[in-house]
Amino acid sequence: MTRIRFFAPLLVLLLVPAATHAADTWSYPHPGTALLERTMDGPRHVYGLRVDLCARGITMRATTESEFSRTTASWRSLVGVQGAINADFFDMGGTELPNGLAIGNGDLWHSDTATEGYIVFGGDRAWISPPREVLAAREPWMQQAVGGYPLLVQDGAVPATFSPAPSHCSELHPRTAVGLSRDRQTLWMVVVDGRQPGYSIGMTCAQLAALMVDLGCWTALNLDGGGSTTMVVQGIGEVNRPSGGTERVVSNHLGVFADGTGAPGSCDLWMDEAIIDAGVLDDGGTTDLDGDGRADFCAKAAAGLRCYPSTGAGFGTAWVLEELADAHGWDDETNFATLRLGDVTGDGLVDVCARGNARVFCWPSTGTGFGARIDGPELSDASGWGAPEYFTTIRLADFDGDGLADVCARSSAGWGCWPSTGTGFGGRVAGPAWSDASGWNQPYYYGTVRTGDVDGDGRLDVCARGAAGMFCALSAGTGFADPFAGPAWSDDEGFTDPKYWSTIRLADIDGDGRADLCARTAAGIDCRLSTGTAFGPAIAGPELSDASGWGDMDNAATIRFADLDGDGDLDLCARANAGIRCWPWTGAGFGDAIAGPAWDEASGWSDFRHYATIRLGDLDGDGRADLCGRPPEGVRCHLSTGAGFGPAIEGPALADSVGWHGLPYFSTIRFAGPRPPRCRPATEICNGLDDDCDGETDEGCAAEGGDADADAGGDDGLEDGIPPADADAPAEAVDGPADVAGEVPVVYVYGSDGCGCRTAGGARGPAAWIALAACAVLLRRRRGPAGRR
């Protein structure tokens, strides 16, 4: 039950320039760690322990109150960590207490101050806080913390000035520092020897900061140095040479458990969960780029976006969008993480959009490739859109119900949408004021933004979680109503933890046309059905509880909803330790589990690079969602039988061996939908259609050969349900593939006022759903931007 990341460490290695040092020596003392010894001009000796916070068995540890005032080696032996360094400045010769924040095993035993920052771990999070942001009270997730100053690196760069700047900063001294990568999943624990001419002269704060940037740190914090600087590693002992000749007794310490067993305890999942969720979990999404009723498969490679059209039994030759290549800057997570698919032009074909550094760009599907770029809203880096609290919230959602997918996102002021015109985008339409000023810039809030049709009116609404629970704002087409309260999935109920908030889903579970809310709590799945203006009582789903191991992210993060059996409602699937399990919706809850493919831990599916790629979509167009995922060898899919899954089908060869284990690539996998057209009730007329969605056609009309139009109370331009050849919008007949009985359903498409779809015969088999999907495509193409009603 672990998460293993290789991309960030590889990036760190690539970032280390050769010109600033004479030699690097690497060793690997314990699982998940790498020890760097660097000799630099001066001379200077640098030692850095690189820690993969998401490797199996990695957990951080800080000194508790009962353990303070020891040498680093003594403390390491006492608590049993595999690696340790000295930590905060302290009252040497007096109380020996640290100057700043000290938390050990969840116990805050020394308070934060305005002059110090701190590094803190716990609850699947790692964070460096700058000085002057004083921690008033320990947040529940904070388990281990040490203080220090000044902040050496912020947002990947060395500050123009160090503030507050200790007097020693401009002098050469031994140094100790800690730093985190941008995704906060790689930690550097660094010591620099000094005060030893001919061996190592030490560094200034500016030189240390440059070193931390060189190592790939996005943020870094200076700790106590001088005679305190010490690194100790089990099996090696003292790694560096303390300037006093022997170790100094110091106040507190920072250590790492690295025994290679057990789930990681300090792996920061917050950013990745927001990135992954944003691209795949909104209601009604589809990747049908060519409009044939089958889900196609897209992912970004180094050379650009690749989309593989479904053939029904596999995937064809990829369409390539070279404009999204790494060479053009699309390997930046602030860009690749915004890849979205939706029908921006309203022609029934799914288009591709993503945020560049200057604005959102969209590339419309032509049915066989991609057309000329359409410029979207100016969500630029210059205006702050490179921050995760903004770019991860970008959605393609038809908020005005005109059949065109609009761009929506949360800015510092709150939610807003830019309506598509088919060839561009209009001005921003303001939504709920989920602003930074009101606290919505926290990942456990902005990471829960979901779009879906809560009230069933054909316009996509928006829901998100605040401190008190869920809130939803209904779209009025030209704006949004005030949010109403949904389920009380509150901070107090533990929903600041990603193993809960990241599982929030907004999807039409019961198939009534209204999007419902579901999430995983400590006890299991909790679903609330939408009434249109509120949500009903809790419906207990499968017992995917913490007690049964579902709190591990390689299980919790795989929760998906899709229509596996083609009955019009959504079923639940997730990855258990032994493989995929699915629970069909019964109308009032979920039935017994159905076993799927054995995507188990032994096969490597507990690796984030693989479990995060699990998707459900209708590959063969039979109305049933199929299963796809990426193991190390490449994509594998299994077709749904309605009661299980068939044998594996090889998909695109997105293998680890050719680089697809990199975050910019596997995290961009898109495969979803399409769901069969949903019947929206209307007044029944004599047109051969089930207008009122009651399962019967043309109730009250005259028998065959009679005057149906007269009985319907008016001339609808049809005779006996057959469209006339000279109708204003000529009828088009589409022959769908034969179903299991060999019957060929015929789908009729009528004019813009009397539109509808039907299949020959009353059955709704797989072929009928294909025909209905084809009908919906033709309807949208004929109607243009006003296609959705």
Commentary on this structure:
The chain has a 7-stranded antiparallel beta sheet with strand order 1-2-3-13-12-14-11. A 5-stranded antiparallel beta sheet has the order 4-17-5-15-16, covered by helices on one side. It starts with 6 loop residues before the first helix and ends in a 6-residue tail after the last helix. It has 2 domains: 22-258, no CATH class; 269-670, Methylamine Dehydrogenase, Chain H (7 Propeller), CATH 2.130.10. 56% of the residues are buried. The radius of gyration is 29 Å and the shape is elongated. The longest helix has 18 residues, at 766-783. With 789 residues, the protein is an alpha+beta fold. It contains 13 helices and 46 strands.
Low-pLDDT windows of residues:
1-19, 704-789
What share of residues is helical?
A: 10-25%
- The N- to C-terminal Cα distance equals 46 Å
Shape: elongated
- Structure annotation, total helices: 13
CATH-defined topology of the largest domain: Methylamine Dehydrogenase, Chain H
What's the mean pLDDT score?
86
Q: Report the portion of residues in β strands.
A: 25-35%
Salient structural properties:
single chain; 789 residues; alpha+beta; Methylamine Dehydrogenase, Chain H; seven-stranded antiparallel sheet; five-stranded antiparallel sheet; elongated; disordered N terminus
Short summary:
With 789 residues, this protein is of the alpha+beta class.
